[in-house]
Structures are given as structure tokens and as C-alpha cells.
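User: Some background: our group keeps a shared notebook of sequences we're curious about, and every so often someone picks one and asks for a predicted structure to add to the entry. Today it's my turn. The entry only has the sequence so far, pasted here. Could you supply the structure so I can complete it?
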Amino acid sequence: MTAALGSLTVVGTGIALREQVTPEAAAAIERADDVLYLVTQPLTAHWIERTNPRSRSLDGLYAPGKPRHETYAEMVDELLAPVRAGRDVCAAFYGHPGVFVHPGHEAVRRARAEGHRARMLPAVSALDCLVADLGIDPAVTGLQSYEATDFVVHRRPPDPAATLVLWQIGVVGELGYATEPRRENLALLVECLVETYPRDHEAIVYEASPYPLVADPVVLRLPLEDLPEARVPLLATLVVPPARAPRRDPELAARLGLS
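Assistant: Of course. Here's the predicted structure to add to the notebook entry:
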């Protein structure tokens, strides 16, 4: 007997509670046989469970001292088990389901490889909120984007003429479950940055607000050298504005007819 084919739809809930859930994502949550979710706000969890009573959280897979990659592997298994049983599954993640959400990508890949229907829907990410809240246009300055630990351990060379965005600075160097940033790791991040930028170059610690109608985002402007002692939220992003203007190549500009 051929096993029944299930389906997997991976959606994002955005940053600002229910307001940023797209109609397409809401419909996927409502119609699924099973909804498995991982969100940061209890009100978002409540809305998901009210929309579809066949919902349960993946948050219990995290544990102190447990490597993050083990948790992610278990999440993928949890997502795929009902799909393999022929059920239509919706996985709902905070923000955009494809931005810093390894289990979402891996579950879609494996589901497709096994012959199941699988798709990922677009959503509002923290980057979308950052652009709006800070008034940054990537078309003007250019944009570099790295996960903070990756930036440090691979010594990614920043372009000081473009905006640099470093994600997850609150857990830089952490491979497992964390409850607060480690100051020594933030100091190491600064050590890498001041190889390119002045120590007093202004940077922005940013965290989007989940309640934008009643609460402002976290926007902390400070010199780079002050970052280790700052009150950095666990989910914070660091924005480093350009330190200089880009250098125009007159020969290439002339060849494009821009001289």
C-alpha cells in the first residue's frame, strides 16, 4: 500500500503580533490539519491556537545546555511526522519563516525530497521593520547583512561605504540556549569591527516592536566601543552606518555613459 502524501506550508507571523500576518498565511493556519508554531509573544501563540485548536508549540524543544543544532533537528522531525502520516501541516514561525529559521528550510527540502507538497510563504521580517523604523534605504547606501557569529568567526570583511547589519548580536558565539548576552562576546565583536571603523563610530542597537501601535522599537545609538556595556536585548540587531562615501570609478562611469 502506498503511503498517503501529506503537505507542508511554512509561514511567518511577522513581528507585530497578528497585524503582520498575511491573509495567505492566516488561511494556511486556519485550514491545516495540524499547526506547529514557534513565536516569541504569548499573544501571537494565543491567536494561533484560537484560529486553529489543532495547534501546539515547538518551544518545549529548547533546553539550557542543549546544542541549538539538536533542537533544530528535532523541530524538523516534529514537522515532518504528521506530513508523513498524510496530514496537511502548517509550520508558523516568528518573523519571516526563511530568515534565520533553519528548520523551516530543512523541513521544506526534506518534504519535497520525499514526494510531499511543500512551500514557504513570504512574510514581514525584522529587516522590513528595520528599514521602516530607521529610515534606511538600501538603494542609497548599499546593504551588507551577516549573522553576528558568522561575521566574527569567518572574519567577514565589511565595506565601510555601505550599511552593515549584524543579526543576533545578543547570542553571538552561543551554540545553545541563551537568556542574556555575554559581554565578553560583544567585546570580541567590537574588536573585529574596529579593524574597519573608528572606535567612536556611531552604531545602532535595534529591536523591532511587537506592539508598534503602543510601544516604540528599541533604538539605541552609541559608539561602537560602548557596545559591550550597553543594555543589549537578546534579539537585537546591530546597524553600522557607512563610515565614508563610496569611491566612484570614473572610467567605468564613463563606459556606462554616466560621466
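Suggested note for the entry: The first strand starts at residue 7 and ends at 12. The CA atoms of residues 72 and 102 lie 7 Å apart.
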